[in-house]
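Example 220.
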Amino acid sequence: MATRDMSELKKLLDQNRAWSRSIEEAQPGFFASLSKQQVPEYLWIGCADSRVPANEIIGLPPGGVFVHRNIANVVVHTDLNCLSVLQYSVDVLKVKHILVVGHYGCGGVLAALNGTRVGLADNWLQHVRDVIVRFRKKLDAEPDLAKRGDLLCEFNAISQAAHVCETTIIQDAWERGQPVQVHAWVYGLKDGLIHETGVSIGGVAELDMLRRNGLFGDGA
Ligand code: ZN
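Predicted structure in complex with zinc ion:
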């Protein structure tokens, strides 16, 4: 039987030990106290892309942010995985902010835009094609293909943030007066900076106003 080369994994385990040690040296008892409870104020819904790690980007240690990631940061109302994360973070953890974070150069978004077949994920990316349909006029008005891709990354983040707002979880939270705001951001791979789309929604009235102003697309 061939011996497996575990040297690459050993590197990861060594790095883990060094990381744990450095945190404990800086803050003795950090992990012991964190193991008793988590009280993150933020839920991050982002892309699974390896270049978009939630904690690092916003400079938060373990315990700082509850995270859900999937290809192209899509929020679908029948996705029990995403809904469970949302429900737990809002109803139990009482997060104050939900960050729906897309990123420029998102492979999933660009595959949807360009009609590139990637495999099983094509079915998942149909949800991004729905965004394209809703923003067709604005996308067609941008002749530069790279800029059109960036635009779709922004529209997708905004649309998925709207989907968060439309869940019964957020609607019920707002109904009972629980403060929770939903924001749409887009992260830049090239500079490591977050771009705010200007969409921050904290209640039904704000959601309706943005919808009337066409921010969620022509057909939303
Ligand atoms: Zn992506």
